[in-house]
Amino acid sequence: MASESVLVDETPDKLKVKGHVQYETPDTISPTSVHHSPLEQFHIWFNEARKAGVHEPESMSLSTATPTGIPSSRMVLFRQLDTRGFVFYTNYTSRKSQELLANPHASLLFFWREQTRQVRVLGRVEKVSKEESEEYFKSRPIGSQLGAWASRQSSMIHEGELHARVEKLQQRFGVREGDSAGEVPLPEFWGGWRVVPREVEFWLGKPSRLHDRVRYLRKEGSPDDQPEWTIERLSP
Ligand SMILES: Cc1cc2nc3c(=O)[nH]c(=O)nc-3n(C[C@H](O)[C@H](O)[C@H](O)COP(=O)(O)O)c2cc1C
């Protein structure tokens, strides 16, 4: 991929972006070349992204919507793929979690620029078990554990309030500055969500915008832990 900076036309009331790099990836995908399971295909692509040195391949956009269909997106970290779906962790009182509680559907998007690949996942969400959240919470650096306690994510906050809260929490849990371990319990209001896909699309950027797209659709009535899929090519 060429690396020149993006060209723009700027006037006081407009910013126009001109042109774009041509995607030149030599690889191709088709419904017959991909794995029969999109979760396995994701696993293959994720490992290829890691090996290709993609920066933060685990970062993904998460879109949620209110029950009346007003969408919002933000980045989160993909933390686990299992036989049911894709797991990320967050605060259960945050805006995203409020939206997921009221409307349990989500869309995930991975973009691996270095490989000109994107993966879109659509599905229902479910909370992961407390045990799984606990196991993940304990694996996080202690500063992040305290951070999870300190943040009333998505609510208004005053300057300096967060750090004051962290200091109080350090005292409460007996954590000292520079400690790398400690006994910080999992907050009740924090844990994982799993997106159980009903549709997954793999996209590969090609020259002249003639991209490859392969979409998996879950067959009606197939079980969550052993779903069957229809696989088809989409026009770019
Ligand atoms: C690369 C990246 C990764 C992030 N990962 C997470 C994450 O795993 N969990 C999380 O709650 N917020 C994460 N954030 C912060 C969110 O984007 C967002 O600001 C926050 O979760 C509040 O979103 P909400 O108000 O829509 O609920 C991440 C941000 C970036 C840029």
General description of the model:
The model has no long low-confidence stretch (mean pLDDT 94). The protein has helices spanning 38-51, 95-102, 130-139, 142-150, 161-172; strands at 7-11, 14-18, 59-65, 71-77, 80-81, 86-91, 105-112, 117-127, 190-204, 212-218, 229-234. The strands form 2 sheets. Strands 3, 4, 5, 6, 7, 8, 9, 10 and 11 form a 9-stranded antiparallel sheet that branches. A two-stranded antiparallel ribbon has the order 1-2. 22% of the residues lie in helices and 33% in strands. By secondary structure, the protein is an alpha+beta fold. The chain has a single domain (7-234), classed as Electron Transport, Fmn-binding Protein, Chain A (Pnp Oxidase, Chain A, Roll). The longest helix has 14 residues, at 38-51. The protein contains 5 helices and 11 strands. It is globular, with a radius of gyration of 21 Å. A hairpin with a 5-residue loop joins strand 3 (59-65) and strand 4. The structure holds flavin mononucleotide. Flavin mononucleotide binds at residues 59, 72, 74-77, 88-91, 94-96, 153-154.
Could you give a quick summary of the protein structure above?
This protein is of the alpha+beta class and 236 residues long. It has helices at 38-51, 95-102, 130-139, 142-150, 161-172; strands at 7-11, 14-18, 59-65, 71-77, 80-81, 86-91, 105-112, 117-127, 190-204, 212-218, 229-234.
